[in-house]
Specification:
- This protein has about 280 residues and is an alpha/beta fold.
- It has a single domain, classed as L-arginine/glycine Amidinotransferase, Chain A (5-stranded Propeller).
- Helices cover about 25% and strands about 20% of the residues.
- The strands form five sheets. Strands 2-1-15 form a three-stranded mixed β-sheet. Strands 3-4-5 form a three-stranded mixed β-sheet. It has a three-stranded mixed β-sheet with strand order 6-7-8, with helices on both faces.
- It is globular.
- The protein binds arginine (ARG).
- Arginine binds next to loops.
Length: about 280
């Protein structure tokens, strides 16, 4: 029997990622419990950390596209929140916080120039922050940002079953801070699709839903989650993950994934990590 460290059959699939350089990144307002204007961001360090992430994507064979940062939009670096893209179709965003609302139009311009129409949601919706495709479903968070009404709009737009999940802990205000998909499953993966998540970020009913859908899921500890370990990006084999999430890193390695640690600690001060900085453009 092969040991788990052989990486049994985990296959990477090349991805296309959209990112936004953190030229104007700062903590200028507080819209989640991580943000405090009293804790300064080291801008140069943030830029170096972000570049390390982009370089890691490139080194592992992924294409990276850049949307131009805009002065006065310090959270625009969190590209995941701007849209959900599936099959080349773009479901845009409508931000909860007024400070972030102008970001939607900036990303919309980028998508239009790249040849995509953009659907503008009628209800509050923060893109891949709360909408996570996994196992032929769209897992959809609510409780702090994206509304239940947006889940219905997403399902209607993509025609993909959309499963609402109730977030209950303000530290995990976006679904992508509490859960991430590990692999596609089926032909591209090595079995059924799987995810990793932190159970206590969810209501009791939503935890049951996740147990039913993903009985083999990798469960993270609170320390892993507080280290932004669930704000990770997996290509099916490599998992770009916060180095502080030590337990989760060990578990993933044991499951045959290859953790690629990338430290985005400056972005944690804004409540963001690796996934938040990464929008996946799925064709
Ligand atoms: N400061 C940003 C906010 O609170 C961080 C967004 C993090 N993005 C994410 N996909 N979780 O909106």
């Amino acid at each position: 029997m092969p040991t788990s460290h052989d990486g049994p059959g985990r296959k990477a699939r090349p991805r296309r990622y959209l990112v936004c350089e953190p030229r104007y990144f700062a903590v200028q307002y507080a819209i989640n419990p991580w943000m405090s204007q009293d804790v300064p961001v080291d801008a140069a360090r943030a830029r170096r950390q972000w570049q390390t992430l982009v370089d890691a994507y490139g080194a592992h064979g992924h294409a990276v596209e850049n949307v131009k940062p805009v002065a006065g939009l310090p959270d625009m670096v969190f590209a995941a929140n701007a849209a959900l893209v599936l099959g080349g179709r773009v479901f845009g965003s409508s931000f909860h916080a007024p400070q972030r609302r102008p970001e939607s139009a900036e990303y919309e311009t980028w998508f239009k120039e790249a040849g995509h129409d953009v659907y503008r949601p009628e209800s509050l919706c923060e893109g891949e922050g709360d909408l996570v495709p996994a196992g032929g479903l769209i897992l959809a968070g609510t409780g702090f940002r994206t509304s239940r009404a947006a889940h219905a709009e997403v399902q209607e737009f993509f025609g993909v079953p959309t499963v609402g999940l109730q977030l209950v802990d303000p530290y995990f205000y976006h679904l992508d801070t509490a859960l991430f998909p590990l692999d596609d499953g089926g032909a591209a993966g090595s079995g059924p699709a799987n995810i990793a998540y932190y159970p206590d970020a969810f209501s009791a009913g939503s935890r049951e839903v996740l147990e039913r859908l993903f009985p083999r899921a990798v469960l993270a500890t609170r320390d892993d989650a507080m280290a932004f370990g669930l704000n990770s990006v997996s290509d099916g084999r490599h998992v770009f993950i916060a180095p502080q999430a030590t337990h989760l890193i060990d578990q993933l390695a044991h499951e045959g994934y290859v953790p690629v640690p990338v430290d985005l600690s400056e972005f944690h001060k804004a409540g963001g990590g690796i996934k938040c900085c990464t929008q996946e453009i799925r064709s």
